[in-house]
């Protein structure tokens, strides 16, 4: 959005893109308010963690804002966060009231559309990787995990793997084997079926559907709130987030929007379905 605006400011009228506005869903905007910082508040307000543990975090002054950039809180605060995470092991971070879709030996793993039945064993593919003593074959899980899908989230006992530095370039692949309730193999398999692609009029030359594309992107420590501030008055802009989402949830979104200090033209009102 900002790059297009900058391009338009230098382009001739006939070369300008007709940009009217933007909508951003679940976008990380302010690291001090979004992600881990908001997650603690969401889990406490929704009674997923005890008042006692939350009060300990507050008393210790725990700040989880820039974990993704290598700025770690104290060992005490890490211990508090891991204590909270232990109690959330079967909670879907994207839908805290929903079902945790993790593969397990206790329940069916995926639906085999050719056999028209649920299959117990988790599907894996053999992939060739570079090993210490030359190429070797390993098993690679199908689907995508929470960590793969949300590269900027670094907690839930993943502290040793966090990044460091002012800005971070991240490769969004799907090579890990972690679970975290975001297992998407059945959906990927469904959308890649020939009959489904045909029904959706998807040409054969289009790549297979995957939750995460193999792309590189840069995370800015300063976030993106500055873009909203610069674009104010130029375009129509909307930011929305899910109230059941603990990753980039509503609590953080409200926090940075309120921090803008902009005039309110339409007061808050309850949202009602069917009247």
Provide a descriptive summary of the structure in words.
With 275 residues, the chain is α+β, with helices and mostly antiparallel strands. The protein has one domain (21-260). 28% of the residues lie in helices and 15% in strands. It contains 9 helices and 8 strands. The protein has helices at 2-10, 35-45, 51-60, 75-86, 146-149, 185-191, 194-199, 225-231, 250-260, and strands at 21-25, 110-112, 117-119, 124-131, 134-141, 167-171, 216-220, 236-240. The chain has a two-stranded parallel ribbon. A hairpin with a 4-residue loop joins strand 2 and strand 3 (117-119). Helix 3 runs antiparallel to helix 4. The longest helix has 12 residues, at 75-86. The relative contact order is 0.20. The model is unreliable at 121-147, 154-165 and 168-179 (pLDDT under 50).
Count of domain modules: 1
**Cα shape:** globular
Order of helices and strands: HEHHHEEEEHEHHEHEH
Helix content: 25-40%
Could you describe the largest sheet, including whether it forms a barrel? 2 strands, parallel
The total count of helices amounts to 9
Give the DSSP E fraction (strand runs of 2 or more residues): 15-25%
The N- and C-terminal alpha carbons lie at a distance of 35 Å
Summary keywords:
single chain; 275 residues; two-stranded parallel sheet; two-stranded antiparallel sheet
Write the layout of secondary structure elements.
Elements lengths: L1 H9 L10 E5 L9 H11 L5 H10 L14 H12 L23 E3 L4 E3 L4 E8 L2 E8 L4 H4 L17 E5 L13 H7 L2 H6 L16 E5 L4 H7 L4 E5 L9 H11 L15
Parallel strand pairs: 1-8
Antiparallel strand pairs: 2-3, 4-5, 6-7
Helix pairs in contact: 3-4
